[in-house]
Amino acid sequence: MSTPGSTPPMDASNEADPGQLDVARAEGAAYRKALEAMREESGAVIKQAGEFLVALVQEDAEGMYALQDGHLAWHEAPEDANGHLEIAVADASDGRFVPGLDVTVTVTSGGEKVLDTTLPFLWHPFLYHYGTNFTMPGAGDYDVQVHIDPPQFMRHDPINGKRYEHPVEVAFLTVPFNPGRKPSPEAQPRAQGTPAG
């Protein structure tokens, strides 16, 4: 069950005039457009939970770049991983992505726990989110419980800054999951104009 929705004010203050708040809302509208694109591509499910909009996406397991000895290195998904779980979190008032959160997910299937972990932030070319690769027993309906702790970062603004004060819980029930793995980029031909190596 999702936390009842509430949206803190976005009113002019000594930190943000109406034009600046419109800029924030435009940034939020762009992020919402990215969420809608993810919904069309991968079937994202979006719910309001407290002061957040929370989106869930399940995709194929995939490799990613990470720093290693001071350089970016490509890391394939673990061999047993056959799924990738993404949670996107936006402010319910202005729609902007909320960074720096502790987002914990518990995934179950038929009463059996499949995943229980805190998700790291993942950079994505069009939709910032929290996520991880994982192993599922097979295709079917899964239940996902998301817990978001109040963030530790400070909030600007005596009018607009009193937000994200309480933990948030949201449940996504009977979500269809399908196992799979994205191919390694080394197994795919490079796009024209892409340098080798």
Automatic annotation (TrEMBL):
InterPro entries (UniProt xref): Metal-bd_Tp34-typ (IPR018470), Tp34-type_sf (IPR038482)
Stated name of the protein: Iron transporter
Family according to the record: Belongs to the UPF0423 family.
Source species, domain of life: Bacteria
Region of interest: Disordered: 1-20, 176-197
A Pfam family assignment: Iron_transport
Keywords: Signal
